[in-house]
Design brief:
Two copies of one chain form a homodimer. Chain A has helices at residues 7-25, 33-40, 44-52, 66-77, 92-99, 136-142, 154-166, 193-204, and strands at residues 30-31, 58-59, 63-65, 83-88, 108-115, 124-125, 128-132, 147-150, 171-174, 187-190. In chain A, helix 1 crosses helix 4 and helix 2 (33-40) crosses helix 3. Chain A is 41% helix and 19% strand. Chain A is an alpha/beta fold. In chain A, the strands form two sheets. In chain A, strands 6-7-5-4-8-9-10 form a seven-stranded mixed sheet. Chain A has a three-stranded antiparallel sheet with strand order 1-3-2. The longest helix of chain A has 19 residues, at 7-25. Chains A and B meet through helix 1, strand 4, helix 5, helix 6 and helix 8 of A and helix 1, strand 4, helix 5, helix 6 and helix 8 of B. Chain A binds a DNA duplex through residues 6, 8-9, 32-34, 43-46, 48-49, 51-52, 56-64.
Chain lengths: 214, 214
DNA sequence: TTCTGTGAACGGATTCACAGCA
DNA sequence: TGCTGTGAATCCGTTCACAGAA
């Protein structure tokens, strides 16, 4: 069942879940695919089709019960449980990741952080003691984690990813600017702001910056 | 011409450009779509088709001249020129962005940074004086920027994006966890690590963390 | 022979359009 | 009447397969 659901669909589910939680926190109880779509810039048909892969959550003529649907989606996505995350690379970016308050409330707990720089190892950051990256495997053997975040320089990234995979990590969030190679059972998402910028400049390059009329 | 090129294709071009520059820096002069594809995990046919939208850059039987192709791609993407970028939001994330050394070498220059917190305004970070976000419009009127980076909390993000757009920004890199609404001529890319994690957990949720055999 | 460039075939995702239920 | 759920139709991106150039 899991296997024949398009990946794009799975990637939209968390977007729906978040928007629905938002509506819920505003006291809303029911929403139509129409309204949700307007809020997200997604067509209503798309939303209904996506949801139909997983069940029949709506009521004809009414719409979707928001609380119910959020719970279903969180269940489907595995967001009801907690996840253990390890971070490799504690430079500026790694530090920002450790300080970022958005992971824990969603159940993603960074349980260990590693770096190779002796000046960084031993530091306590956001309540976590940075360990030497050489201890990655043994630390993960004692306390497994499902997810790894890679925030090391490009030159070291593939090596670190290989070691995370060898240590049992099943999903990797890669901030390094490389096309990571992993075995098929491991999942990877890339975060690369430079690539994002470089693909946007294609569209704006002919229009020089301007000051709009006041 | 610009308009009928699939966006996915445009998004792959910077990936090619980077890989090619890498090869170039290793002294390579020619590469086939086959080899490039292996390096990137992209099929050779895909690469050839992508490039064919823009011209005929290869030599049959030989492959692509790397230097030539990099230059073509950089030209197409507008990477030969410099771009002015403003950052809004100088929390942990914003600071990391200011310190990040990956933008400037690619021609993306952060020329101004804004925040709303009086404790942050006036600070000098990575050589840049943080300004009050209330001065966004006038600063951009005096010194336009094509690109805005949004690193403010979700609650403020849409408002900031509206003001960036009103100030002439044409492309936005949005780190805030919202579905930003912008006019059609403005381009947006999202960076949202939580969404990335949440779409991966779908695939790994049934397999608990384990320690692989040593 | 090798590898590009590209129409044609294919497959997958989106949108349509409507039957059916509340 | 309003809105879901869903097959069918459409659209779009990827892959195939091969003609043709070096």
């Amino acid at each position: 069942m899991t296997l024949d659901i398009p990946e794009v669909v799975v990637e939209r589910l968390p977007i729906y879940a978040r928007a629905l939680q938002d509506l819920l926190s505003h006291g809303r109880e029911v929403v139509s695919s129409q309204e949700l779509g307007e809020q997200l810039g997604i067509t209503p048909a798309q939303i209904r089709k996506d949801l139909s892969y997983f069940g029949r959550f709506g009521k004809q003529g009414r719409g979707y019960n928001i609380r119910r649907l959020v719970e279903e989606l969180r269940q489907i996505l595995g967001l009801e449980r907690d996840w253990s995350v390890v971070l490799v690379g504690v430079g500026h970016l790694g530090k920002a990741i450790l300080h970022y308050g958005g992971f824990a409330p969603q159940g993603f707990h960074i349980i260990a952080a590693f770096d190779s720089d002796p000046m960084t190892v031993g530091q306590e950051i956001a309540g976590l003691r940075v360990q030497d990256v050489g201890r990655l495997r043994e630390t993960l053997a004692a306390r497994p984690a499902e997810i790894g975040i890679v925030a090391v320089p490009a030159t070291e990234a593939q090596e670190i990813i290989d070691r995370l995979v060898a240590s049992g990590v099943q999903a990797i969030l890669n901030y390094a600017p490389i096309a990571a190679r992993v075995p098929p059972q491991v999942h990877v998402r890339h975060i690369d702001p430079v690539l994002s910028l470089q693909s946007m400049t294609f569209y704006v390059k002919d229009a020089p910056a301007f000051s709009p009329p006041k």
